[in-house]
Sequence to fold (198 residues):
Amino acid sequence: MTTMTTLIKLPGVALWVSLAWVAASAQPATTTPQMPPLPSLTTVQSLDVTRYMGTWFEIAKYPNRFQSQCFADTQAQYQLQADGGVQVINRCRKDTGEMVQAVGAARQVGSMESPKLKVRFAPVWLSWLPLVWGDYWVIDLDPDYRLVAISEPDRQYLWVLSRTVQVDAKDYAALMLRLQGQGFDLRRLERTQHARQP
Fold:
């Protein structure tokens, strides 16, 4: 679908670029002020993986292509495995009412308390390829392990998860301020609908 859309839009884009070039050539050159680079994204100091296990409900996220079919009731379940890895099961409800899921795996990067993980949803036989593993950084987590924010170094993705489908308004507002302080654009956040709690 992306390729088709791109092909349809290409003539319009080419025309727009041509007109922009003509307009620019008729005006004196100007410099566009550059935004200062964001500081490196920081994580929480440590993560107790055992406490982190269980079910988390998605409260908000940056929209992304791999969740485009998700309409409501998005949740993630983490289960510690015998080898120290983590099984990840992501579920969501489509607009048809059908519940769908994706099963993946996660592993910590670094020490046993590292808040940096790698996650993959590609088949096991592809797990040797570095590109199938995505960054999963715990960047904010309350002491009771009830509310968490997940992202990756480039800040292209962001998820807010909770142990319950309802989050205290003050706790959520405080988290938003901390995320804003980390350089996230809160206008991009999309709240997740939850029809009912399983």
DSSP finds three helices and nine strands in the chain. Residues 93 and 99 are 4 Å apart (CA to CA). The radius of gyration is 20 Å. Residues 49-191 form a domain with the Lipocalin fold (CATH 2.40.128.20).
